[in-house]
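Moderator note: this is an archived Q&A kept for reference. The question asked for a predicted structure of one protein chain; the sequence and the answer are reproduced below.
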Amino acid sequence: MTHIPDMHDAEPIPPEARAEIDRLLRSGDLFRYHAPSDAPVSLLEREFADLLGARYALAVSSCSAALFLALRALDLPRDARVLIPGFTFAAVPSAVVHANCRPVLCEVGADYRIDLSDFAAKLPGAQAVIISHMRGHTSDMDTILELCDARGIPMIEDAAHSLGTTWNGRNIGTLGAIGCFSFQSYKMINSGEGGILVTDDADLVARASIMSGAYEHNWTSHMGLAKACARWQNQLPLYNMRLSNLSAAVIRPQLSQVARRVADGRRNHDHVAARLNASPWFDVPASLPPERRAPDSIQFTLCGMSDEQARLFAQTTSETGIKVQIFGLSRDNARAFWNWQFLDDCPDLPRTRAMLMRACDTRLPARLNPADCDAVADVLLAAAARVTAPHRAYGT
């Protein structure tokens, strides 16, 4: 019997983290602002900014918090229209609503990327844009930036799935006004929960730092932002979305492993994608030419299957040990826009809906080896063959 790899576990936390964790536990010094200098969170911010090639970074409690603070840092008026893709995680429109703004959804095509014609049609009247590089798939950022720049509309990158991805050699997350990343367990760096935003704009990060919970004069420990923060002292609300030193101690030793994880993840993805694309039942969209991806999962579209066959495919793979979610057929899926019933005005988005009804997702962790990846591909291919095989009459 083929060995099925454990698809659930993340990579182990590097042993280098343990000494710092033990030190913090002995001292009880978990709050980022207790240390007079070089607190683990402050060190993480400097190191992450250097890794991305950004001037500033702000570590916070989640990527959702980073998106919310990014919107608030832009000082948008109440009910500002924020254009987002119709294929994203529910946390993205939730952050927009939380920031007292209105999400405006645009179509996403069969390749999981933003439909540029619908984006351009809905951009007039928008006061900000969030581009979700959903599951690490990068839309045409050259065109998007050109459209936004022409209208003076700030763009936030939701790069939760894209740490290590580049566009024309530039790190995703550094193309717009602010980039937001996740440290949740199933991302490239794992601290259970956590997030970080990066920007080159001192005023934006100063506002975000104060609102994240840098009360009184705690902002003096933030990457040379004393002058920028001083002008906002006592003028902004405090939302207390800070990251703890303990989380930073878990994250920092993983930064040096990002390049290796990216290379291994790309190898795994491309190997499985080649096998699936050789079958008539699967389509794994190719990368765009300027895009160099950093995947730790794989997405594919089921071709020529009915709803019943698609559901049976997901059931069959799950029984074998490979969990596949079909975004539009998974009950209450938080990535299917019609389930975002907290929105006042949710458009139909027929192209996005059609894509989601056959778009599948399964984890493909960077820690897997080529034999593991072949086992995953074998399961997916066998399940497709089984559910599409002609029914045979009894006794034949």
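Archived answer notes: The mean pLDDT is 95.
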